[in-house]
Structures are given as C-alpha cells and as structure tokens.
Amino acid sequence: MECLKVRELNIFRPATKSMPFDTSPTINFIASLFAPLRLSSHFDLDVASGIAIFIGGNSAVSALALRPLYGQLWHGWYNTPGCHAIVWELVRTLFQTSFSSEYSERLAVSIGISGRKGPKYIASRSGTVMPQTCYLADMLVHSNWRGKECDPAVVGVRGSPSPTKVTIVDFKKSIPTGNDTLRPRSSRNSSILIIPTATSIVACAFCASMEDWLAFTMILLGMVCSGIASFILSTGKITLGEQLKPARGVPPGDGMLLSDTHIVILRGNEEDVNAVTKGKLRLKLKGGDCTLLLCAFLVSLQVALQLVFMPFASLAGQLMFLLSLLMSGACNLYLSAKEDDIRSNALFTLLNTPEVKTYEARSRASAAVLACLALCWESRTPAKEILQELVPIKPRPWAACSACLAQNIQEQNGEFMYSPELKEMLDEGENNFLTDLIDDVHAAYDRYIKDHPDNTRMRR
Question: Which residue of 65, 184, 186, 445 could cross-link 416, Cys pair, CB 3.0 to 4.6 Å?
Fold first, then answer.
C-alpha cells in the first residue's frame, strides 16, 4: 500500500512544481558544451598550449617585415605564434656591430627587407661587369613583377620547356634616395589580416563568457604586444641609401641583369641604375635603438608569460588560445608564401614607377635579340658583345646569324633582312639550324620594332 501511495503521488504531482524552461543566452549554452571537457581526463593540452607559441618563427618574421610596406597601423593586432624568432632577430640587430654601424641597415637585413645578393650585371655602354649586385636587383629578377600588371608578350613560334623572360625597365623619372625616398606601398593580400584579428577577438570574448580570465589575459596579451610591435614597425620609414653622383659627361648606365631564366634590361641615368645595382635599403624607426629595444622587450614578455601561465588555463580556454594561434599562423604562412609578390608590388613605387615592358621569349636566341635591340639600337653599342654574353655558343649557324643581326642593328633596318648566301657556306644540318635561328630572330626583331616605334627611328 505504501508503494502504491508513492506511485500515486508521483503520477498526480502538480504541474506547477515542474522545473521552469532555461532561457539562457546562446553564448552561455555554447560555453556549457565545453564544461565536461574541464573534467575529462582524456585530453591534456597543457604542454601543447605552451609549446605552440614556438611554431612558425620564420613566417612570423616574414609577416612582420611586411608591416612597413603596408603602412597600416591596424595590422598585426592579433595573438601570433613564432614571436621567439622575432625576438632573436631584433636582439641580433641591437648587438651586431660588425655588419654596419647603422642600426637601420642591420634591421633591414635581419627582418629580410634587404641583404640578399643580386645577379650579375653588365653595363652595355661602359663595359662594367658586376659579378654581384644588391637586393633591389635581386627583387627585379626573381619576383613575379610584371610592371603595370600586364601579361608578358609571347615572342617566337617554337615551344620551349623553359622560356626566357625579358623585362625592359625605363627610368623616365629619377629615383629619390636618402630622406627623399618614396615610401614603398603595397595593398596586396592586406585584407587577409582581418581574419586573425577577428579570431583573436572572438577567442577573448569566448574566454570571458566562460570566466576563464587566465586564458582571456594571455590572448589579450598576445594581441597587445604583437600589435604594439607591428605599430612601431608600420611607422618606420624605408629609405634607399644615398648614391654618389656620377661625374659629368658619364653616359647613361644602360645594362642588363642576368639569371638563368630572366633578363632584366635597365635603361636610364647612371645614378638611377646605380640605385638598383648598388643601393642598400634601410628601415629607420622613430627613437632608433631605444624603440627597437622596446619592441624586443614587449615580444619577449609575451613569449615568457604565455609559456609559463597558459598551461594553467582551462581546457576550453586552451582550445581558444590554440585556435587564435592556428588562424594567425596560417595567415602568416600565407603572407610568407606571397612575400616576393607583395614586395615587388611595393618596389614599383620605390623606383618611382618606371616604364616596363615584359616579354616571354620561346628561345634563348629570341631573348638575346630583344636584349640586344633594347641596349644597342640607340646607343650604337656593338651588338656582338651583348650577344656573346647572352648566348655564348660558337656553332657556325649562330655565328652567321649573329653577324647578320649586328649588321641590321647597325644599319637600323626597320625589318630584319638576311642574305641567302649565308646558307651556301653551311651543310644541310647546319642550314636547318640556321633556318630555326632566323625564324626566332625575325619574330623578336619585328615584335620589338612594333612595340617601340618611338625608340626605333629607322634610317632612311
């Protein structure tokens, strides 16, 4: 009877005593999903959350080096991994004295804005040969820079697995140097930095909703320290070192930068060409060494505090911390992959927007003809010297073809012409080779004359 009474009481319990419906906000509901994880013994991110800040050092330095090129003060305000590498580069800049007496030049080298050696340079008018050039020359040769965003014009009919790119750069306006250096500007891929910033803000808000103030503080610390360092570098000024003025009467510094798959023709005053081949970039910060020391201290503080305290946060807070690092590390890695493209876009401004024309030559012979026409047509430089530098082969067909090309350039013929007598001195196999060479030369010759009518005034 007692059991029956208990059962009856359970059945006829008044509905007014039931639990009311939970009307908590959505964010509290989502946070409650992570509550069991705090008690779970199957997950342990304590070590991972501390070590994760040491991942992606090279990409973090590359992303930081792009701040002066963007010039946007809001860039970099996110929690990022790899800060230990940034500290190392900044400290090395402060204490390295053997490289240069100026911190600005050392800083540019440390974060990768300068320092790389460029390719061989040959001056067509003076005959000067430089086995190595400076960073700007390297950027011109190895980046994907195409001038005014135009696709290269294809020259030649024969297919080639490794075509040669020919870029003709005309410095119509002088390149400012020293304190008058134009600030390089690039806007490429800058909007992607919104993603890690938004992720870090959301992670902070989520930790606050769960009242995990330790994780909240560590993420916010990363945002503030990285943001201040990025702000300081964004306000820095990239300058091109002063160049010695050439002597009066010095001919233009026309010449070519040579690599295996790219030939860059430089045409302009000696001073402007020297700025590309010999100029050194510097990154000047307001406050000098003291500002650099402040950046190093802030980033060191971020690394030390996150390494010590982050393992004591809750599991959900650690997950939010790792999520912010994951998104910012992915964006840093993407910017590192696009680094040359971004820098070359900024380089175009630094060089005072020269006029550029780009070709894709299907054969090395076509590339040699384009370079020879660009350097020898107006200057009257002997064409054979340029051709030997570009195609250093000595078969009889090429010797005959190059001699014919040099004669056409010397006479400034509007159309490439050759004598049938060239084939009489060669055997059948050499004649076939000569025919292919003549086709390549003819295609490149006609294309250059068509594209540069003002520079190729034909002799009548």
Answer: 445
